[in-house]
Specification:
single chain; 151 residues; mainly alpha; 6 helices; 3% strand
């Protein structure tokens, strides 16, 4: 950013508002990663409640593996987001001396991990639903309703 831009923004009061927006964006990234992954974990626990482990030990094991993957990914992505820049203030103020991780690569890795988590969670109940004693049309309807989670 050129010094003329800095001077103009400071005279108009825009700099403080932009700084506040960038800080809010930084915070929202962390909260997003927490809430999206907590929702996936919650969905997995719902599946464990619907399909009890005593009756379906393989399903319970697979579900717990998915929960572990999502939790570990959530932990890693939150920590990486919080310390993506050293010092942390550089994440919202590029004028501060320091360095940051490659955020583009991080965003792509985050997207791939999120999609993988979505596919794993959505794929979990499929076999269990097909094993239910219901009419085929009801099973298809149930799979479609569960599939709305993709949207």
């Amino acid at each position: 950013m050129a010094w003329g831009d800095v001077l103009m923004r400071s005279r108009l009061g825009i700099g403080k508002k932009l700084l506040l927006l960038e800080q809010a964006f930084y915070l929202s990234q962390t909260l997003y990663k927490l809430t999206v992954n907590a929702t996936k974990i919650s969905t997995c626990y719902l599946f464990l409640r619907i399909f009890p482990a005593a009756q379906n030990p393989r399903f319970a094991f697979a579900t717990r593996l998915v929960i572990a993957y999502i939790f570990l990914y959530m932990l890693a992505s939150v920590v990486a987001t919080v310390v993506e820049c050293v010092p942390v203030q550089r994440a919202w103020d590029r004028g501060v001396e320091g360095h940051c991780i490659d955020t583009t690569a991080f965003w792509y890795a985050n997207a791939v991990s999120n999609v993988l988590g979505d596919v794993l969670v959505l794929g979990l109940p499929g076999r269990m639903v097909w094993g239910l004693r219901m009419r085929r049309g009801d099973k298809v309807g149930l799979v479609v309703v569960m599939g709305f989670g993709v949207l």
